[in-house]
Amino acid sequence: RCCAVADRTGHSLLHTLYGQSLRYDCNYFIEYFALDLLMEGGECRGVIALCLEDGTIHRFRAKNTVLATGGYGRTYFSTTAAHICTGDGTAMVSRADLYNEDLEFVQFHPTGIYGAGCLITEGCRGEGGYL
């Protein structure tokens, strides 16, 4: 099933989720880069992150940690993945000696046009198109 808002679907989803998050007591840390998982007794208790604005290192402690790091699409030679999809989250999990599970479910677009750097959209297939 496809969700589309003209050519601004991602923008629309981002603003909808952000608007909903304002209903709760959320803190935002913009321009931070997660370096490693904070491990204690074999359990993840947060992340260690670099502030990209001033180069300081921070510890973010948490009861639960969700990694949403964008996958590893840039590890492929021909890809339409964002430039930030470099596998850093997968690497953090490996360094912490934890399991990376279900890696086959990381989004990958098999309809990229080699050399052109463009993509036959998911909407094309979602609307019943055959390739």
From TrEMBL:
Keywords: Flavoprotein, Oxidoreductase. It holds the Pfam family FAD_binding_2. GO terms for cellular component: mitochondrion. It comes from the Eukaryota. GO terms for biological process: mitochondrial electron transport, succinate to ubiquinone. Residues 1-131 form the FAD-dependent oxidoreductase 2 FAD-binding domain. GO terms for molecular function: electron transfer activity; flavin adenine dinucleotide binding; succinate dehydrogenase (quinone) activity. Signal peptide: none annotated. InterPro entries: FAD-dep_OxRdtase_2_FAD-bd, FAD/NAD-bd_sf, SdhA/FrdA/AprA, Succ_DH/fumarate_Rdtase_cat_sf. This is FAD-dependent oxidoreductase 2 FAD-binding domain-containing protein. It comes from Cuerna arida.
